[in-house]
Amino acid sequence: MAEQLTAPAGPVSIYAEASPNPESMKFVLNAQLLADGVSVDYPNLEAAANSPLAQELFNFDYVGRVFVAQNFVTITKTTEHQWAQLIPELRTFLKSYIEANGPIFTVDPAAEQAAAQQAAATPANASEADQATSQKIIDLLDNYVRPAVEQDGGNITFKSFNDGIVTVNLQGSCSGCPSATVTLKSGIENLLKRMVPEVQSVVAEGITI
């Protein structure tokens, strides 16, 4: 059986923070769940096989998506219930689960995410120039875009660069967010086009609006 990864033991404090997506709420902890820059997005229970914590959250019938990052969990609801009704229950569950040293992951996602990012940056059929451009884009996303997106309870990952088109994946609160398309075009696309002349446009997977 794989070693189960848990958060550090000790008293846990949690506060809820609204995101630009009205259906998503960010629960910020004083405990580290993942290494900086590592995150996982579970759009459904089946995808959460590696996370006992996420599986437990999906037992709440109003939980539709779970996103876990360094020190927060973003939960997207599926019902018409108001967050004022749901936040106390979710906060109590998270606090109890983590203080009880409940398993967060069965396998650390860090290595898998690093391998996926490396594979995306260096596809076998890409030229050296395209690979260099892809790495430049990844660095810009990591250094300038991801910190801001994480503040909103989500994440952005690089998927591919082909014929001037950058494809990214939006996770957590960014998926289904009404302002995601505007952010993508007016913010991220403008930044990349200004910093990387080879970029012509940016499109996203993970937007469900």
Automatic annotation (TrEMBL):
Q: Which GO terms of type biological process are on file?
A: iron-sulfur cluster assembly
Q: Which residues cross the membrane?
A: none
Tell me the ranges covered by the Scaffold protein Nfu/NifU N-terminal domain, including all copies.
14-101
The record's similarity note reads: Belongs to the NifU family.
| Gene3D superfamilies associated with the record | Fe-S cluster assembly (FSCA), Scaffold protein Nfu/NifU, N-terminal domain
Q: Which SUPFAM superfamilies match?
A: Fe-S cluster assembly (FSCA) domain-like, Hypothetical protein SAV1430
Tell me the InterPro entries matching this sequence.
FSCA_dom_sf, Nfu/NifU_N, Nfu/NifU_N_sf, NFU1-like, NIF_FeS_clus_asmbl_NifU_C
Name of the protein described by the UniProt record: NifU family protein
Q: Show the Pfam families listed in the entry.
A: Nfu_N (PF08712), NifU (PF01106)
> Which GO molecular function, any one, fits this protein according to its record?
iron ion binding
